[in-house]
Every structure is written in C-alpha cells, then in structure tokens.
Amino acid sequence: MTDREVVIGHKLGLHARVSAKLVKLSAGFNSQINICRVDRNGPTNADARSILSILLLAASHGTRVCVSAAGDDEQAAVNAVCQYLETERPD
Questions:
Q1: Residues 14, 59: contact at Cβ < 8 Å?
Q2: pLDDT per residue over 35-86, tens digit each?
Q3: 10 assigned to active site
Q4: How far apart are CA 78 and CA 1, in angstroms?
Q5: For residue 86, which of 4, 30, 27, 20 has the smallest C-alpha distance?
Q6: Cβ proximity of 48 and 26 under 8 Å
Q7: Domain boundaries in the chain?
Q8: Helices (H), ranges, the chain
Q9: Which of 32, 48, 56, 82 counts the highest number of beta carbons within 10 A?
Q10: Catalytically annotated residue among 15, 38, 55, 66
Q11: Among 91, 88, 85, which Cα is nearest to 7's?
C-alpha cells in the first residue's frame, strides 16, 4: 500500500465537476484508491471511483486528505491523484 497526504488546491474544493474528473482519472488505474480526510470531520473515507463518496467528504479548498492505493500500479495512482488534487484548476 502506498499513501500520501495532500492539500486540496482547487479554490472551490471537490465540487461535482472536479469530483467527476477525479473518478475518471481513478478508473484508469487497476489499484483500489481511497481518499481520507485528515481532520476526520464528517465522512472520512471515500472510494476514488465513487462520485457520491467523494462529494460526501465535503473537502473544500485547503482540506488535508490522505490518498492511498493498493494494487499493481499503486505508486502511479497515488502520484496522479495527488497531483490532480493539489493543482488549482480553473473549472
């Protein structure tokens, strides 16, 4: 298992469009990918392939999350998801 903490960089947090793109990105990997809020406020774990699960995290800009993955491409999965989450996006 590989994991890493990251801060949500998008100014609007994990809203619907960003979450949908995250689900699409995560579906490209064989590994099981999970996102966990570090502050433990509200639902703490989300399956990165479930838009509802991600939206229920209610992760706004600046929220610390831990991205973990288990599987044959776990390192690449964690790197890609973390890069996506920490990069501020215009959409």
A1: yes
A2: 999 886 655 899 999 999 999 999 999 999 999 999 999 999 999 999 999 9
A3: no
A4: 10
A5: 4
A6: yes
A7: 2-86
A8: 16-27, 51-56, 74-86
A9: 48
A10: 15
A11: 85
pTM above 0.85, yes or no: yes
Length of the chain: 91
Q: What is the CATH number of domain 2-86?
A: 3.30.1340.10
Query: What per-residue confidence (pLDDT) applies to 37?
Result: 92
- Exposed e or buried b for every residue in 25-46, given b needs 16+ CB within 10 A? bbeebebbbbbbbeeeeeeeeb
Residue 8's closest CA among 41, 37, 32?
A: 37
Q: First and final CA of the chain: distance in angstroms?
A: 31
Residue 28: pLDDT band with limits 50, 70, 90? very high
